[in-house]
Structure formats: C-alpha cells, structure tokens
Amino acid sequence: MSTPAAVIKSEHTPYYTPANNGGAALHPTDANTPALFRPLTIRDVTLKNRIVVSPMCMYSAESDPSSPSVGALTDYHIAHLGHFAVKGAGLIFVEAQAVQFNGRISPNDAGLWDHSPESEQFKSLQRIVQFCHSQGAKVAVQLHHAGRKASASAPWLAAQAGKPALRAEQSVGGWPSDVVGPSGGAEHIWDETGDGYWTPRALTVEEIHEVVQAFAKSAEAAVRAGVDVLEIHGAHGYLINQFLSPVTNRRTDQYGGSFENRTRIVREIATAIRAVVPSGTPLFLRISATEWLEEQPIAAESGSWGMASSLQLLPLLSELGIDLLDVSSGGNNKHQKLVIHTNMQIDLAAQLRKAIRAAGASTLVGAVGLITEAEQAEGLLQGAVEAQAINDTVAGPEATADLVFLARQFLREPEWVFSAAKALGAKVELPKQFWRAIQL
Ligand SMILES: Cc1cc2nc3c(=O)[nH]c(=O)nc-3n(C[C@H](O)[C@H](O)[C@H](O)COP(=O)(O)O)c2cc1C
C-alpha cells in the first residue's frame, strides 16, 4: 500500500493551510536566477526575494476612540496584505502605524500605541503576521507619527466633499486641540489654505521624550507580535521629517537649530528602539532625501533638507543600528518643486548608496517610486546580486539599490511578483492552492 504524499501544514496558523513559499526562487544561488529573486539576509532575517510591498495607508481602521478596536487592523487588512503574501512578495509592509493616539493622519489610521497582548491592536497585527508567515512572507511595520499633518480625514472623504484635504473634527474622532509639531502656531499649519489642516502646537521637551519612548514601546510590541522588520517613518513631512527640516523646525532648544539638534529626535528614537528589540531584528529608516526646496525663496531664508543633509546623515546610520535607508522624497512643504520623471527618486537612492559604499559602510538602500516593470526593477539591483548577507554587499559592483519597494503597482497588479518572474524567466515556487491555474 502506498503512503499518501504528506503536505506540510503551516506551523504559523491555528488553521489548516499548506505551508507556502510563493515567489521564492527554486534555485536561489544559481547564476541564472535574477537579482530580484536572490534572497537577502539582514541580521537574523532572510527575505526570500528582494521585492517589498511599500507601506500604504488604507484609512480603514475603527475611528471611535471609545471602541476597543480603535486603530486595530481588521479582516480588510488580512485580505489586502494577505493577498500580497499569497502572491509572493518577500517583505510586506503593514501601513504606517501610529505610535501615539494623536500620531494618526486620520481617525481611521492603524495604530500600535496599545501594547498589551490582549489589545485589539496587538492581536490584529499578530494575526496578519501569522498569515503572512504561513505564505513565506516576512512582515514589516512602519512606526509613525503624523505631527502637524494629523487629524485629517481619509482622502476619499475630502474628495467627496470636493476638497483637496479636509480636517477631522472631534465629532468624527479627530483631535483638533492636540495636533503637534516641532514648532507651533498658525504659520506652521501644513497647508493654511481652506479647511484641510489644524494649527499645531509645539511639543514640549518632556513630550518629545514621550514620543521617543512611544516609538520604542511600539517597536517592542511589534516584535512580540512576530513582526520581522521595523521601519521608522522619517519622510513625507510627518513628525520626524518636520524635526529634520530647518523650514518646519524653528525650535531654539536642543531639538532645533543645528543639524545635530534637528536630527536628535530620530537618533534618540533609533537608539531607544535598538535598546528594546533583539539585535537580530532589522531596522529601516525612511527619509525624504530632499524636500525639493533647493531653489525656493523659503530655502534661501532658512535652509532646507536636501541631498547634502541626507549625505551628512549617512555616517550616523550604522552606529544607530539602522540597516537600510528607504529613500523617498518630498511632502514637507507645499512649495516643493518636483520635476516628475521615472528616476526622480531612484536616482537619489543610487547617489546615497554610492556614497555609503564609498565610505566603506554596508548600510543597505531601498529604492521606491515609479517602479512598475520587472526589467526596470531587475536593473536597479544589478550589482547587488552577490549580496547574500549584509557584509558581502561592500564588495559588490555598483547597484542602485539592495531592495525594491513598490506601492501603487501592487494595487494595480497584485500578482506582480509572479508576472516579474515570468518576464525575467525566473523559476519560483507558487502557492500550492494555485498550481492548477499557473505554471512558471
Ligand atoms: C494608497 C497609498 C498609501 C500610502 N501610504 C504610505 C504610508 O503609510 N507610509 C509611507 O511611507 N508611504 C506611503 N505611501 C507612499 C508609498 O509607500 C510609495 O513610497 C509611493 O507610492 C511611491 O511608490 P510607487 O510609485 O511604487 O507607488 C502611500 C502610497 C499610496 C499609493
């Protein structure tokens, strides 16, 4: 009598699913395997491929502050993030998660300020992690504080009201009197035209210390929930970005003024996170590499955060325990001058990676922005292929990035990983439940 073939059940879920590893190369070390499908080990975490679902706010969490589910992820997020896991992404970012109640962009944002293992915020994150792990994907959280851009409405509510932005009143779960930033007052409203945003008040030094601790506590909770990778959101004009820029940070204490003072909060946050999470957990930092104000009158007046500042930040990264710089841009000032073209942000990533390698450092770089095609993504990683471990990257030839982050293309084409494998002729695993439908 023949023995029936055993299907290995996933050990990550309390229910039955065969353990999957879609999007993993069948022959990861084979010279013909494209760079996109080469695993990458960062500290104790190995990503099966170099394709990352970039963080994307879905504004789909409970907004009622009295509900135990406020800020918690839901079945919507299981379906949304889960299908990227089934469809082979190596690393999946849960959207930006607020580390404090008033750090949400909108009342419907996800959060991780309730650290108890019994909390809905914790349990819902754990559930996402378990599902993604059952499909062989790793999970990242982006720890976030919206600063002066907080207490806005979900973008579709503003659109329905015919406005570019619409602030959230207390009656819909907003917190108009507790919108904060490095500097306060009407001149620091993110966009003072119309009724889009609230007037921020300046954080006290004590409150800054609380923000720092909130990042650390959320990081620690995320790791307890099984999250593999942490990212500090230092981009897009949110709180940390507001501190970094001399345009938005007009403080005269130890958190404002010089480059050292303006970077203090992010340095303290990284240090506080590293102190409470295992040394094997990778830590990423997303920055706006430039706020695109170089030629603007406002920059002549106060200076701005441009590529020179980002280059100045680089030597600090490894000593802060930051493993990867996720290179985004803009979003901190409405006078930003963007010249939109495909390589707009990718070129910034290339420039920063080059400087990191020239300094003999091994900090990894993520490229994001307008990546849509398999060949394009593969091209960005050329030269980073032999990097199977963080220390090997130094020896490799010049690449633009070590990981590619895609956002909108995953919304348009959730099966992008499998399409990319097909386009590049890569042999990858497929989820067992899909075998009858697709072969690569
Ligand atoms: C719906 C949506 C939500 C987003 N939310 C976030 C977020 O939570 N955190 C963040 O850093 N970037 C966010 N972004 C920016 C993306 O992560 C990404 O950087 C940007 O869309 C450029 O990449 P793309 O051209 O591949 O879309 C969001 C983008 C979209 C389209």
From TrEMBL:
<dbReference type="InterPro" id="IPR044152">
    <property type="entry name" value="YqjM-like"/>
</dbReference>
<protein>
    <submittedName>
        <fullName>FMN-linked oxidoreductase</fullName>
    </submittedName>
</protein>
<dbReference type="GO" id="GO:0003959">
    <property type="term" value="F:NADPH dehydrogenase activity"/>
</dbReference>
<dbReference type="GO" id="GO:0010181">
    <property type="term" value="F:FMN binding"/>
</dbReference>
<dbReference type="InterPro" id="IPR001155">
    <property type="entry name" value="OxRdtase_FMN_N"/>
</dbReference>
<feature type="domain" description="NADH:flavin oxidoreductase/NADH oxidase N-terminal">
    <location>
        <begin position="36"/>
        <end position="424"/>
    </location>
</feature>
<dbReference type="InterPro" id="IPR013785">
    <property type="entry name" value="Aldolase_TIM"/>
</dbReference>
<dbReference type="Pfam" id="PF00724">
    <property type="entry name" value="Oxidored_FMN"/>
</dbReference>
<dbReference type="GO" id="GO:0050661">
    <property type="term" value="F:NADP binding"/>
</dbReference>
